[in-house]
Structure formats: structure tokens, C-alpha cells
Amino acid sequence: MSPSAAVPPGSGEPGGALLALEGVTVRFGGRAALDGVDLAVAAHETVCVLGPSGSGKSTLLRVVAGLQPPDTGRVLLAGADQRGVPPHRRGLGLMFQDHQLFPQRDVAGNVDFGLRVRGAGRAERAARVAELLELVGLPGAGRRAVAALSGGEQQRVALARALAPNPRLLMLDEPFGQLDRGLRERLVTELRALFGRLGTTVLAVTHDQGEAFALADRVVVMRDGRIAQTGTPLEVWRRPADEFVARFLGFDNVVAATVTGTAADTPWGRLPVPAGSPEGARRLLVRPAGVRPAEGAGGLRCTVAGRVFRGHHVAVRLRPDAAGAPPLEAEWPLREAPEEGAEVGVRFAPEEIVVLG
Ligand SMILES: Nc1ncnc2c1ncn2[C@@H]1O[C@H](COP(=O)(O)OP(=O)(O)OP(=O)(O)O)[C@@H](O)[C@H]1O
């Protein structure tokens, strides 16, 4: 079977979503783990759900998988309401954090599990296993013992197993949680390419924004069981919807501001803001790249409180001299980064400033 043949047929209404959640609410006791969630995933799209611990990410996956019935609302797959449809009849592939491989079986025995359950013949299973191991970068590993594999290799086996029955939707729950950063980054890049090639539709959950941004066509940021923002990684990065999303993405330069036209009064002084920004009393985000060294003696006077080498730049923590002004994070090229304790002046670049909604 060629990789393109792995695209599931009929995986979605023409122009419609492969997966749709409509007003889905799940309550545990008095508390809503999901609160009126609407979400659509198009065929061939990779959507990453991102959010802090307890925001409802796993519950969302469990509802789609059929492991948790919604209290209200509907889950539709290719337009069909899934109420009463058991998990194994939903045509989904699941890959969870602890990847739950069968330790007593070899790699092939794990990968062909779903095919065996479906009653596929020995030759068909062997061919499919060989194809999948090739796909996930473990060619010829079928006879190896699962316990003898590295964490990254086990992850690939789990992925091959989830892909084996040709699921119409692949769901990943913290798929790289246990792996070290370098391996995670490599796997994410490989997976993105693989999903693109196969045309797989993917719904993934992670609390790691770097991972989500690298893998997703679209990210969904959750907060307290609701969707705080959805958009392409670039859209969300450029324009976080609110302070919660901005801080979750790791932006700490957020202050109260009064915006009039293309200027904002803030504890850091009067800052330029992009034309067309919402006016009045707002929260304002300055991305670290927008805090620049000022020429001469101008700009907001600050003391360098700390600096961290980040490879392509130095993250500089600044303590403004102005009373009541919160610290500022700046991102400067190596050769421009001042020493700790130095006195510097900074100016602000409007293109890196976002007036939050
Ligand atoms: N079976 C359950 N019984 C009671 N409460 C639950 C149950 N499952 C989840 N919850 C609660 O629902 C909320 C959402 O949980 P969920 O596991 O979906 O969050 P999450 O975003 O996946 O968190 P994490 O990143 O820590 O896995 C939490 O407050 C959690 O305590």
C-alpha cells in the first residue's frame, strides 16, 4: 500500500468538518471540565489543544473518543452524531502519553494489534506492519522486544500501532511527554512531515506550547473548560486574544494602559501602539523583541537585573528606574546585550506591541 492510500476514504462531508463538537459540556460534581465547547477539525488538518493543567484538554479527547459522554452537546464525526457509538466503532487512532505498549509482545505484535482485532489475514498484517515501521523510521524492527527499545523508539511503535487500522482521526494525548527536549523536537518535525504526506487528520493535546506550535496547523488554547483562543500558530503568537493567552505563551510584559490613537500611557511611560488598536483602558503586551536599546541617553532608564543566553539572543531582564514600573523582559542580539548591573535606556517598537482585547 502506498502512503497516499492511507488517506481514509470518505473522511468528511464535502466542505464540512471531519470532527465537530457542538456546545459540549462535561461536569464533574458541580464543576464544568468542558463548558459549552464548539470546535471543528477539517479533514487533513492537525489541531493542537493547548492549555494549563486542569483546563479540560484530556476531557475533550475522552469525549471525542467516546470514553466520556457529554452532559450536553454533540460530537459529530463526518457529520454523524456519535451519541451511543462505542469507542472502538468511531474509527479513531489513539496514542497516549504512557503509550501502553504490550511488553510481552514484540514490535510487530504491538503494531498489528488493531489489525488482528479486525480479523485481517497474516500476510496482509505483515505487509502493513512492514510499511508502518518504514513510515515511522523503524524499518525491520518487527522482531525486536519492546522492552529493549528507547523511549523515542517506543513512541514510534505506539504511533505505528495507532496508524495501523487507518483511523479517520488520530488523537494524541501528550504524545512526547516523557521524552527529552531534543528527541521531542526531532519527532515533532518528523511527525508533521509524515501527517502532511499521509493526509492524516490529527487532534493532539499538549501543555507544551513549543510542541503545539511546531506540530499544528491550528492551535486551540483552553482555559477552565472553555476555548480562550483558536488560530494558526502565527496568529496566536502575533495576537494573543487576552492576557491569559499572552501569559500562557510566556509573555510577561503585560501592563495596564490607557490607549488613545497610536499611543498608550503605561507604567513604562508613553508607548507607541499600532494604528487601529482598541482605545481606552486596556491591557497591553510588549513582546520582548519590541524592547530595544535607545540611542544616546534617551528612552526609559533601566538597570539590567539579569541575562540568560538563549542561543540566538540574550533574554535580558530590566528593572526600570521609574517608581511602580514592573520589570521588563527584552530580547537582544548577543553583541548588544549589556552586562548585569549596567544602566541602559530602552525604546519600544510599535510592531511588537499588542493592545489586548
Ligand atoms: N473523572 C473525573 N472525575 C472528577 N473530576 C475530573 C475527572 N476528570 C477530570 N476531572 C476534572 O476536570 C478538570 C479538567 O481535567 P482534564 O484532565 O480534562 O484537564 P487537562 O487540561 O487534561 O489537565 P492535565 O494537563 O493536567 O492533564 C479538572 O479540574 C479535573 O480535576
UniProtKB/TrEMBL annotation:
Domain ABC transporter: 19-249
SMART domains attached to this UniProt entry: AAA (SM00382)
Keywords on record: ATP-binding, Nucleotide-binding, Transport
Gene3D superfamilies noted in UniProt: P-loop containing nucleotide triphosphate hydrolases (3.40.50.300)
GO MF, one annotated term: ATP binding
InterPro entries on file: AAA+_ATPase (IPR003593), ABC_SmlMolc_Importer (IPR050093), ABC_transporter-like_ATP-bd (IPR003439), ABC_transporter-like_CS (IPR017871), Mo/tungstate-bd_C_term_dom (IPR008995), P-loop_NTPase (IPR027417), Transp-assoc_OB_typ2 (IPR013611)
Origin: domain of life: Bacteria
The protein, known as: ABC transporter ATP-binding protein
The species this protein was found in: Streptomyces pyxinae
